[in-house]
C-alpha cells in the first residue's frame, strides 16, 4: 500500500465578469461538479463566485476550511482577469484554468458566456503575475469535457504537491565511478525540495543501534510470506529486516517539516563488507510502499522514481538502460516483437530492487557481480539480498529529471512496453520496447548527457509527466516521438 503520496483534494471556484449574468457561471459550475462526482472525482464546490477582490478572499476562506490543496479556476463566463488570477496567486498550490463552452445555438443572447475570449485575457494576466498553472491543450469544454480535464489535473497536481513537500535523504558521497549520479543539488531547492545529506557512518551507526530490535521477527515473517518459495537465502532476512527498520525509523524521525521523504543511498562497495548484505530487497520493499530508495546515491534517480509513483499511484522502480537485445534473441522471438525494430529494443536491468508485484516470479538471490569481486569461489554470504527475476510484460513509461552541471533541469519521457521474452540473464531484468529508441538513445540520452539510471512507471503516464514538469518549471522535456512538433509547449502525449 502506498503510504508516501499526497491525497489531492480538488476544489472548483467559478468566476464571473460583472457585466455577464453570475447565474450563468454558477449553473455551469454545478453541472461540472455533477459530472465529476459521477466519475468518482472528489471535488469541493465553493459557493463563492468570484467577481472582485473581496470575493477572492471569501473563496480562499472556503477552500482553506475544506482542506483543498488543488484549485480549478472555472470561467463560467468571460471572467474578471484580475481577481481570477489573484485567486490562483494567493491560493499558493497547484491551480488549473479552464473555460465553459457555449451549450446550444438556441440561446446565444442571454446565455452566451464568451469564456473562450476570457481565457485569452486570463492567460495575459497569468503572465503578468508570473504564475504557472495547468492549462489543458484545449481548455474550453462542456461539463463532461471539463470533468475529464479535471481528472487529469488531479494526477498532475499530485506530482506537484508531492515534490513541493518532499525531503530527500542521502547516505554517503556520490561514487567517483558513477559521476553521472553526481549532479548539483541547487535545482532541488528551486523545486521546493529539502535534502538532508548524511554520511555512511550515520547510517551504519543507526543500523547497529537496531541490533536485536524486537520488531525484527515480525518483519522477517512479512518477508517470508512475501517471498514464498522464492526465499532462497532465509538466513539473511534478519539483517535485511534490521536494515528496513533502520530506514523506516529514519524516515519517521527526520522528515521534519516535510510530509514525504525518499532515499538515495550508497550501496557498494564497502556496504557489503561492513553491513554484511546487499540492500536491494529492502529497496524493493520500500518502493512498493511509495518510498523509493535509489542506489549509488542517485539523488535525481530517487526523485524521478518518486515522480512516476506520484503520477501513476503504482509502485515504480529504477533500472539501468543496460544492454542490447542480441540478434539471435530478436530473430527467435520475431512474432512477439511485432513491428519493433532491433534498435527499438533494450534490456532494463538492476541488481534486484524492483518491487515483487512487477515480477513474473522473484527469488531472493545474491549479487553476482559483487560476488565475483568480494567472495570469489565462496558460498554467497555478504552479497546476499537481491530480488531477482523477469519483469512482467505490459505498458511502461521511462522518465528522468536531471540537473546539468550548470544547474539547468532537463527531463525525458518515453512510453513503451515490456515484451514477454525470457531475458536469459540475472538480476531484475526485462526486455523493453520503445518506438524510436535508437534515435532517442543517440539524440536525447547521449546528446543531452543523461545518466544510465531511468525511473520506470508500469503504465503509460507521458501526458501526466509532461504537464507536471511544465507546472514545475522544467522546460527542457524530450520525447521518443519523431521531432515534428510545431509548438514548443504542445503536449505530444494526447
From TrEMBL:
Classification of source organism: Bacteria, Bacillati, Bacillota, Bacillota incertae sedis, Caldicellulosiruptorales
Keyword Membrane applies: no
Domain of life of the organism encoding this protein: Bacteria
Protein name: L-fucose/L-arabinose isomerase family protein
Keywords: Carbohydrate metabolism, Isomerase
Molecular function per GO: isomerase activity
Species this protein is from: Caldicellulosiruptor naganoensis
Ranges of residues in domain L-fucose isomerase C-terminal: 349-475
InterPro entries reported in the protein's UniProt record: Fuc_isomerase_C, Fucose_isomerase_N/cen_sf
Keyword Phosphoprotein listed: no
Amino acid at each position: 500500500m502506498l503510504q508516501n503520496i499526497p491525497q489531492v483534494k480538488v476544489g472548483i471556484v467559478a468566476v464571473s465578469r460583472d457585466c455577464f449574468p453570475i447565474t450563468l457561471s454558477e449553473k455551469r459550475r454545478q453541472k461540472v461538479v455533477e459530472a465529476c462526482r459521477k466519475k468518482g472525482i472528489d471535488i469541493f464546490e465553493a459557493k463563492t463566485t468570484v467577481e472582485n477582490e473581496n470575493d477572492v478572499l471569501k473563496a480562499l476562506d472556503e477552500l482553506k476550511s475544506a482542506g483543498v490543496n488543488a484549485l480549478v479556476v472555472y470561467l463560467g463566463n468571460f471572467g474578471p482577469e484580475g481577481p481570477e488570477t489573484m485567486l490562483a496567486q494567493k491560493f499558493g498550490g497547484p491551480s488549473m484554468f479552464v473555460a465553459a463552452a457555449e451549450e446550444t445555438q438556441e440561446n446565444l443572447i442571454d446565455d452566451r458566456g464568451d469564456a473562450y475570449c476570457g481565457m485569452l485575457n486570463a492567460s495575459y494576466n497569468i503572465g503578468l503575475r508570473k504564475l504557472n498553472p495547468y492549462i489543458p491543450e484545449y481548455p474550453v469544454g462542456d461539463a463532461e469535457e471539463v470533468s475529464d480535464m479535471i481528472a487529469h489535473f488531479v494526477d498532475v497536481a499530485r506530482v506537484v504537491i508531492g515534490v513541493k513537500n518532499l525531503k530527500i535523504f542521502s547516505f554517503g558521497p556520490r561514487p567517483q565511478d558513477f559521476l553521472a549520479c553526481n549532479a548539483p543539488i541547487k535545482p532541488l531547492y528551486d523545486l521546493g525540495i529539502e535534502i538532508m545529506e548524511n554520511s555512511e557512518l550515520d547510517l551504519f551507526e543507526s543500523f547497529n543501534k537496531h541490533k536485536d530490535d524486537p520488531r525484527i521477527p515480525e518483519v522477517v515473517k512479512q518477508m517470508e510470506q512475501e517471498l514464498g518459495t522464492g526465499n532462497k537465502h532465509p538466513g539473511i532476512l534478519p539483517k535485511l529486516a534490521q536494515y528496513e527498520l533502520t530506514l523506516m525509523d529514519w524516515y519517521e524521525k527526520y522528515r521534519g517539516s516535510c510530509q514525504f521523504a525518499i532515499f538515495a543511498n550508497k550501496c557498494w562497495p564497502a556496504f557489503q563488507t561492513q553491513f554484511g548484505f546487499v540492500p536491494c530487497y529492502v529497496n524493493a520493499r520500500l518502493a512498493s510502499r511509495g518510498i523509493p530508495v535509489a542506489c549509488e546515491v542517485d539523488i535525481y534517480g530517487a526523485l524521478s522514481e518518486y515522480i512516476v509513483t506520484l503520477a501513476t499511484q503504482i509502485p515504480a522502480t529504477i533500472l539501468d538502460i543496460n544492454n542490447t537485445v542480441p540478434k539471435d534473441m530478436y530473430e527467435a522471438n520475431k512474432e512477439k516483437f511485432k513491428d519493433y525494430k532491433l534498435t527499438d529494443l533494450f534490456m532494463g536491468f538492476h541488481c534486484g530492487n524492483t518491487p515483487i508485484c512487477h515480477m513474473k516470479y522473484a527469488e531472493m538471490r545474491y549479487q553476482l557481480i559483487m560476488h565475483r569481486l568480494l567472495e570469489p569461489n565462496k558460498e554467497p554470504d555478504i552479497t546476499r539480498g537481491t530480488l531477482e527475476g523477469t519483469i512482467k510484460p505490459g505498458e511502461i513509461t521511462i522518465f528522468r529529471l536531471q540537473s546539468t552541471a550548470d544547474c539547468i533541469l532537463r527531463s525525458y519521457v518515453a512510453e513503451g512496453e515490456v515484451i514477454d521474452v525470457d531475458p536469459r540473464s540475472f538480476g531484475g531484468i526485462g526486455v523493453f520496447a520503445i518506438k524510436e529508441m535508437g534515435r532517442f538513445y543517440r539524440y536525447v540520452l547521449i546528446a543531452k548527457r543523461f545518466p544510465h539510471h531511468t525511473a520506470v512507471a508500469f503504465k503509460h503516464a507521458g501526458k501526466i509527466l509532461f504537464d507536471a514538469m511544465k507546472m514545475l518549471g522544467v522546460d527542457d522535456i524530450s520525447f521518443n516521438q519523431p521531432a515534428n512538433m510545431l509548438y514548443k509547449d504542445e503536449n505530444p502525449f494526447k
